[in-house]
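Fold it.
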Amino acid sequence: MNKNSPLYKTRRAISKNRNFGVVYALYPQGLRRTLEFKAGLNTTLAEYATIIANLQVRYPQLAKRQESAKERAQGHLYAETFLGRRRYIPNIAYDGWNKRSFAECCAMNTPIQGTAADILKIALGRILEGLLERPWLRPLLQIHDEVLLKVPVDRITDATRFVKSCREAQPFQEFGVPIVAESVVEHRFGELHIVKVSL
């Protein structure tokens, strides 16, 4: 996907919400609501059903993993991240469809999004350890998988290299997927643009 394309944000929103929606067992109605809101996409329920079916055909193990995650959670009443952090979901044993289906989504979501949150916490720990040597670097806020920092203009390259190295380091031995962290900078939060540096 070309990040310089004027359609990049829309295409990214569609791809991200489609892929995560299917992984978390979103139904066509839910996928339609999400993509109408986040990407302005307006099409038929049949087309959303086709999108979901195509992904399930392309990734045949997906349905098995989803069922396995739900069964584990039903047996324990919690789901776990890869590192063992638990999310308790007692409603997975509930008879009512609404509460149980939401709990099932949590059971499928937690191993993925929860592990991603654990990975960010590990990276934040590395950043905090490096602050003593970098008193000019001031963490301000975490928003989902983003970290907002206040940095003097003459330290932007140093800060970018340091934070990028903390974010991209392998979080734990079993994790074999490369992590790519982008850095953006501007005087105001709403005007951020990408900064490229080599490590």
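The mean pLDDT is 87.
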